[in-house]
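Write out this protein's structure.
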Amino acid sequence: MFSISVVITIGGLPGSGTTTMARRLAEHYDLKHVYAGKIFREMAKERDMDIEEFSKVAENNPEIDLEIDRRQREAAEKGDVILEGRLAAFVAAGELDHVKGPDLATLKIWLKAPLEVRSERVAKRERIDVEEARRRIQEREKSELKRYKEIYGVDPTDLSLYDLVLDTSRWSEAETFSILKAAIDPLLEREDP
């Protein structure tokens, strides 16, 4: 393990590769993976709802998002973690009122890809057609943008908080992993005695 507390955040829109990269990096660096989407899905399942239905409920119930953030901030405070989610960087940086505090992030990463590429990835993953995937992505993004602006007063499309923004459509999964590893390794080596 590391002599410093490692906190890496990975955010991105659906289908950009955040979960794939977060899992690979967590495994490679032996870090815990705390995934906002998984927490959100578990909360939806507890209510017998699909993601789209639960997103609509969450639009009118800010406590859902606030609870996800609190769980992620607790994990960041413990350290040695990859935080994944659209607002993970804001949470780790202590930028949100309900999780104020020092910036705990070692590195804040945002992954992006064009809507067409993301739709194809989601369609393949969820075994649906590309148009249906595109519709779901757009509906989900619209819902999330509305919630984030209303609840937090932040625009998750403003990428100025991130240390690294990477278009995953330009490289293979293995190449993307190599690029991220090349960005992380020097930070960890610099801190390790």
